[in-house]
Amino acid sequence: MSGHRISKFISLAAVAGLALSPIAGLAQNAANPLGIPDNINLLGSANPNVRKATAVVNGFVITGTDVDQRTALLVAANQQELSPEDLERVKMQVLRNLIDETLQIQAAETQEIEIDQAEIDQTYVRIAAQNFEQRPAAMDEYLRSIGSSPSSLKRQIHGELAWQRLQRRLFAPFVNVSTEEVNDLIKRLEASRGTDEYRLGEIYMSATPESAAEVEGNAQKIVEQLRQGGSFVAYARQFSEASTAAVGGDLGWIALGQLKNSTLETVVREMTPGQLVGPIAIPGGFWIGLLIDKRQVLMADPRDALLSLKQIQIDFAPDSSQDARNQQLETFLSGVEQLRGCGEAESGAAALGATVVANDQIAVRALPEQLQSILLQMQVGQITPPFGSFEEGVRVLMLCGRDDPQAASGPNFDQLMGQLEEERIQKRAQRYLRDLRNDAYIEYN
């Protein structure tokens, strides 16, 4: 779903009937296209950004309850308390999101696109299973417990489904990708074999020259919340205008050239997995990025290797002395070093008073990052350095087998064609949403 634009609505009611300073002779230029003086006097005390969080969009009422319940979803996903200022900022952004969502639903209805309640309910059930690991009734209860509601989430689902269906009707039939374009992309992928590709999360927030400062400030606040442990997926779904908003900002695996922006290419090239950057000014707005993972184009990723491991662990009695623990640990470490391969793991562990847990199909990437590089350098029968604590137990991993991954074949012709078509559909959709905003009648309460 195309996301939500940061926009600024200026009320003229506060200055109605008052004389304005003459500015007719002010020259206009590219840096100041509206010819606004550097020093202005605001007439009236009303701040257009301080208002009740309610609006009427082409006759449809967005209530304060709507805003509060959608905000509660974001705050819960964020898993941390927001300051009063941040909470108010989030509410204003959520109101903007709800306005866009309403415009998208209304546009779909104008095209006689109806989303059945049964389809919305099915999607809700799927979200409950995938994201909450709960039955719908349990998720209903959870949503109410955080101050939200099932109807709020279902409204968001309705908006996403309607917008996707509208894009397929209005734009998809007129998007053309030639066979030559796809074949050219396949050749470029082959030529880049072995180079790095990146799995990125993104949050894009559009801005005009007039709103740039406000949008950048909002984007910076989002980055601060993310650095404090906020959910990137939740913020992307609520605030991003990119087509990836519906999937939590996940761009999937891409090469740097697909970003089509030299600044972003330079920044992403230097990122490490898990790193967050932004906000970065790009044409049309600001970009926040998260590097989810990194690999080489059309090459097998060693971290996809499947390992057969035996974990050998020793536990310590809570009431034992420090000297006794040290002696027990020394005996354990000396003993596991003497083991002659996985065949002796169980008997050797039993003699040491240790336990063994086996796993025959675990991917390297599923293990803690500190252990990944160690295990990739090990041979069968070798053990990792010990890790853990006296309180939780000390353990080692013994490598008993390794199945290396096959070389990646890369996306096929149909997948690449679909990707190019989707990019062009989304560009048209973003322009269309801007037109909907420009034509909308929005009244704030």
Description:
This protein has 445 residues and is α+β, with helices and mostly antiparallel strands. Among the domains are: 181-300, Chitinase A, domain 3; 302-403, Chitinase A, domain 3. It is built from 13 helices and eleven strands. It has helices spanning 64-78, 84-110, 117-132, 136-145, 150-170, 179-191, 212-227, 232-239, 262-269, 322-337, 345-352, 369-376, 413-439, and strands at residues 55-57, 60-62, 196-206, 250-254, 276-282, 285-296, 306-314, 355-363, 387-389, 393-403, 442-444. A four-stranded antiparallel β-sheet has the order 4-3-6-5, with helices on both faces. Strands 8-7-10-9 form a four-stranded antiparallel β-sheet. Strand 5 (276-282) and strand 6 (285-296) form a beta hairpin.
Span between termini? 28 Å
> Could you name the CATH class of one domain?
Alpha Beta
Shape: globular
Which strand-content bin applies to the residues?
A: 15-25%
Percent of residues in helices: 40-55%
CATH third-tier fold name of one domain: Chitinase A, domain 3
Protein name: Parvulin-like PPIase
Organism: Erythrobacter mangrovi
Keywords: Chaperone, Isomerase, Periplasm, Rotamase, Signal
GO molecular function: peptidyl-prolyl cis-trans isomerase activity
